[in-house]
Structure formats: structure tokens, C-alpha cells
Amino acid sequence: MQTPNQTTRIPLRFFVIIGIIAISFSSIFVKWSTASASVTAMYRLLLTNVLMLPFLWKYGAEIVRVSWKSWLRILASGAGLGLHFLFWMDSLRFTTVASSPAILTLEPIFVMAGSFLIFGHRTSRPALISMVIAIVGAISIGWGDFRFSGTGLKGDFLSLLGTAAVAVHMLLGKSLREHISAFVYSFFVFLSAGAVLALYNVVVDESFTAYPLQDWGVFLLLAIVPTVFGHYVFNWLLKYMKAASVSMTVLGEPLGASLLAYFLLNEAITGLQLLAGCLLLIGVAMFLRNNEVKG
């Protein structure tokens, strides 16, 4: 199997950095939208499918070869991604940009446990120490914004549910990417996730059209930046990296989102948060170095 370096001659860390920067914009765009979380997430995914559709015909032969068992797992992965977006985006209505992504730092723990049980992937002691360092840094970024009662607690709990859902999505994606291309996997996962959200919107009687032009612009930005350049890139990386390693890279989101929120949303950022961000980045870098990036 060729590595990304052999096929593109671009270091793997370049794609990791691109993905982290892209997903860091998610919280900002969601804050800009006046639509409900479920509608925002649905259009984010379905517009991504529209952008990918002109290239789908190139993968016709591969699509025909996908087994029905793989289709079921793709649907399950899509459902996990859809629920992740639903819970996490809704959490931003009740808590801050710093707090909600920080809770997502629990994702690597869920993924690492699942990777051990499903794939037998073991993690070295230095990698575990690195994970702890990174998670402490990420949680410290949002610590001052955590709430233990009221709507803030509701937002943090929704973020936790979204974390569990995306861990399921990540583990299924790791197994599927062993024999399905990133494009085919991503297209149908995004489509199934969007369908799950569309069904939810029908059940709760959400409007599909009554949104200002600004919201449609936000939907498109969410499709292009954090979905294509974020989630699609991470789906591609699952071919070459362990699921736990890909999960660790997304720990950069709390720092990126907090910095963007400072400049774009006027949310405060403290010196302690900056120091925590440095700690986070050190932990992530150490983990990727110690945790056999190659899957």
C-alpha cells in the first residue's frame, strides 16, 4: 500500500494541519447561522454532496462492488456523523465556542478504547501520556466556560453526546476505508447523515426554506470549509493513520476555534487559554510521534 508521501510527495502533517484549520471554522459559522442546528447540519452535508456530485460518475465501478454489509456500515457511520452534528451544533446555542469543542477532546479516549476492542490497536505508554497532556490542555481552554447548571450544562451535555456519536463514526470509517475510497465513503456517509437530519427535521416540523440569504451563505461555507477541507480530509487520512491518531488531530480545534472566536466573535481569550493551547499542541505532536501513525 502506498503512503501519502509516495503518491503526493506532500508530508502527511500538511493534510493534518489543513484539516485542523478547516474544522476550527465550524463553531464560528454555526454561531453566524440563525437556523436551527438540525437544519444547519442538514444543509451543510447535502450541499457538500452537491459539490461532490459532478465527480461521482468516476467511481461507478467501485460503487457497484460495495457489498450490502458495507452499505449498512456506511449508513451507520452516516447516522453517527449526523447525530454528532445535531448534538454538537445544538450545544453551541447554550454554551461558548471554547467550552463545546473542548468537550470533544474526549473523542480520542472513546476511539482508542474502540480501536483496541475492534482492531487490536495498542497504544504505548508515551502516547498515552501525550494524550493526557493534550486533553488537559484542550479542557483548560474551555474550563472557565464550563457550566455545571442551567443552559450551559445542557450545552456541555449535548457536546458530550456528539462526541460519543462521532467516535462511532470514526471507528466505522476506519474499517470501511480499508477497502473503499475516501470519495465514495465520504459521499455516501455525508448523504446518509444528511438524510437522517432531514427525517428529523420533518418529524419536528422544521422549515426547509424560510431562511435569509445570510444563512444560505453560512450553509455553503460549512459545506466547503469544515466539511470538504476538514471531515473529507480526515476520512482520507483514515486510510493511512490509526483512528485514534486521526481523533487526536482534531484536538487542535478548541485552540483554533477559540482564536477565531476572539477575532471574529469578540469572545474573550486569556493568557491561561493561550498557554493551555501550547500544551495541547505539544501533547498532540508527541502523541502522533509515539503512536505509530501508520495504520
Automatic annotation (TrEMBL):
- Give UniProt keywords alphabetically: Membrane, Transmembrane, Transmembrane helix
Q: Which SUPFAM superfamilies match?
A: Multidrug resistance efflux transporter EmrE (SSF103481)
Membrane-traversing stretches: 12-30, 42-59, 71-89, 101-119, 126-143, 155-172, 184-204, 216-234, 246-265, 271-288
Q: What is its main location?
A: membrane
Name of the protein described by the UniProt record: DMT family transporter
Entry similarity comment: Belongs to the EamA transporter family.
- EamA domain: which residues? 14-141, 154-288
Q: How does it sit in the membrane?
A: Multi-pass membrane protein
Locate the coiled-coil region(s) and give their ranges.
none
Which Pfam families does the UniProt record give?
EamA
Give its localization.
Answer: Endomembrane system
